[in-house]
Amino acid sequence: MHQPGKQHEVGWLWRNEVELAALVVIGVGAMALRVWPLGGYAHNYDEGIYWQCLRAMARGELPFRSVYSSQPQAYLLALLLPYLLLGQTLIAARVTMALYSLVALAGMYCAGKMLGGRWAGIGACALLAVQPLFLRQSYTVMAEMPALAFACVAVALAIAAGRHAGRWGYWLAVGSGVALAFGVLTKLLDVAAIAPVVASVVGSEIAARDGSARARARAMRGAMRRMALLGLGVVVGAAVVTAPYLSSLGAIFDQAVGLHLTAQNRLNRGIGFNLTLIIGTARMYGGYALAGMAGIAVALALWRRSGVVVVPVVWLVGSVAVVLHQQPLYDHHVVALTPPLALLAGLSLSLAWGAANGRAVAVGSRAAGGARASTGRPYAGWWRVMGRVALVTATLVMMEVTLAVSVQVDVRESQVAAVAISSAEQRIVETLDMKTTPGEYIVSDDQFTVGLANRDVPPELTDTSEGRIESGNLTSAALEAVILRDHVRAVYFGTGRFDLLPDFVGWVRAHFKEEISFGNGQRLYLTTG
Fold it and tell me: I want to staple 173 with a disulfide (CB 3.0 to 4.6 A). Which of 226, 234, 311, 369 is the partner?
């Protein structure tokens, strides 16, 4: 008597167990790929900058007051607590990045599931987890990964807000606004997430149609209410991360915005260069296959006249526009394209299955049989069935190819990132350790190597990047003033960036009597004064 109910219950448990098992496999695999390179010493200049910022904050220095920060106010705050709790090491900072990548994957799964069902969510999550460029940022201490994590959460919450009526929908809209504010104030590239968040929060309400003018008016009021609460969330989020820096608002603008505006004018390579870089980065990091799956999703959506891809397409278009106009553009900025591409690619699974399932049912119906009789082609329905099967099969094969290509690149990149410190680098680290004392500042254009020696740079000089130097934000006079103020006894030239300031090079040679050369332009200047 109760057998149908039991069968339904078993089916529900089976579906959820399979879904949970798939997510566990993705999570374990994702962590394995991220743990492998955590202890490697592959040199990354930007990583050295942020590592030195965290070291300075751990000893009580504050960003935008003494610590120079080229990223908005939420970034270092988002890293500080995990960094302190996990041991205040480079590995602790990298683990923090890995944890944020898991947050991004959770947001991607939820967004995909709400838009296209559980397999779309699982597919999007799996594809993003192994996407090589996304993976590289998952163990590299840079601003992109926390920003993408907040963006994925903001979009997922916005989609949920648009699907829940009443109080739940309002709270979700506020949460989406908070996450969006955190994201933009972590990395300005997150402005690309604004459009999909707005479209998700208000789109479903505005699209509501039942022929009633009263219902349309009610839908519009609901959309505007959610939009207002989204704005409230943005204000709350911005206030939370800005509150510790109320006395440093001018410095925030100068360092996190003004520097980039100046660099954009002086180091502008043009949209053509950016487009070439995006294409080259996609080729190097397996982006073509992912873009191909995203294209399949868009084609299927157009064929079926489905609006399910609107949010990820809006997200992708915004991300492409932001990356194309980013000056100067580096390959790590291109990672902003991976979440919307992965979301679209995941939706291709549900769209292909929906097309096949819908057509197969129609073929088996009486109406379909009548159509076959009238056309005089008794096997036409079977050709349609075979076509739908081929569509699903082709989509699954494309996903397998994308995953295989991604994992192959992942292994290659992780092997490079996991390499031990070279003997040449070890010699420099040992020399810095021997020639200086703990707690003593070293002025350098290679903050990473200074960190490997367990030494610090002056907080104003955590960032000595080419952009800062060529924009005129960092001058020879400023470097000399810091050296004299802090009685710095060691200056290490490690990356060639200080060589862009010939006056400073001459000043160091005149004031620092001992020079130790390591080759390749790397040299250490010391003074006993």
Answer: 226
